[in-house]
Design goal:
about 25% strand, 11 strands, single chain, alpha/beta, disordered N terminus, about 250 residues, four-stranded mixed β-sheet, binds zinc ion, flat
Length: about 250
């Protein structure tokens, strides 16, 4: 598996407070952690939320005071996050690392197809307007599955392993994972990234079929399958979180 910087918070531990600043109200999730020595605030790009971790003995009052003291910081961080991009006519989404503009072609045949005009590549969508977002999302997931199946088949053949089932997910904490039974899970959002990033994730998860850990042996297998492992890791660290803003809002 490959984690983003931030982890998902178990729902059971969450309390939420609201902090007002300068006419805005921010919701702050609280997480008590036995290992926390102090209060820490984080604004998470993938989920656009605010998390305050605190020592298990810290009080709600202390948490509120801490969050209120840093409300301006929260506001500034949230304002700096890229806006969510809906799959709607006129919006631009990357597909295999290349920006595509979504256009509505209500009277044409087909469901979703790729075209190009003077300004660049297009994702064209037919049918009625309320169905556009879902049709684009379905199209991207189909394309993701196709590319991932091809990449997984190629890497598996080289390793002489047989992956079980390939599933697509939409988690903010992982790009891919491999179960002990050999089932591979991937984020469909990898289709938005440049193709080498998707290819790397396929190699990474296929390598987990041999080594269910991140040991030096595992990395040796991954690099043999995919020599540009470092380049792909750097891309994910730099741009990965921004993939979560597409198809929202
Ligand atoms: Zn891994």
């Amino acid at each position: 598996m490959l984690r983003l910087f931030e982890r998902r918070i178990p729902a059971a531990t969450i309390h939420e407070i609201e902090v007002a600043h300068d006419g805005s109200i921010y919701r702050v999730a609280l997480k008590r952690m036995a290992t926390s020595k102090r209060f820490t605030l984080r604004v998470r790009a993938a989920t656009r939320d605010v998390l305050l971790t605190m020592p298990s003995r810290g009080s709600l009052k202390q948490a509120r005071e801490f969050a209120e003291r840093h409300a301006a910081w929260i506001g500034a961080r949230l304002a700096r996050l890229p806006r969510p991009v809906a799959f709607a006519p006129g919006s631009v989404t990357p597909l295999r690392g290349i920006d595509h503009r979504i256009v509505h072609r209500p009277n044409e045949r087909g469901v979703v197809w790729i075209a190009r005009d003077d300004e660049g590549p297009l994702i064209c969508v037919s049918g009625e307007a309320p169905h556009i977002a879902r049709r684009v999302a379905d199209y991207l997931k189909r394309e993701a599955r196709r590319d991932l199946e091809a990449a997984v088949a190629r890497h598996s053949q080289r390793l002489g392993v047989a992956p079980r089932k390939l599933s697509l997910r939409d988690t903010s904490s992982r790009w891919g994972s491999c179960s002990t039974s050999g089932g591979l899970n991937f984020s469909w959002r990898l289709i938005l990234a440049p193709p080498y990033v998707l290819d790397y994730l396929a190699a990474h998860e296929v390598a987990h079929i041999l080594h269910m850990n991140h040991s030096p042996l595992f990395w040796a297998v991954t690099r043999r399958l995919f020599p540009e492992t470092e380049r792909a890791e750097v891309w994910l660290k730099t741009h990965g979180a921004s993939l979560h803003r597409f198809g929202a809002g």
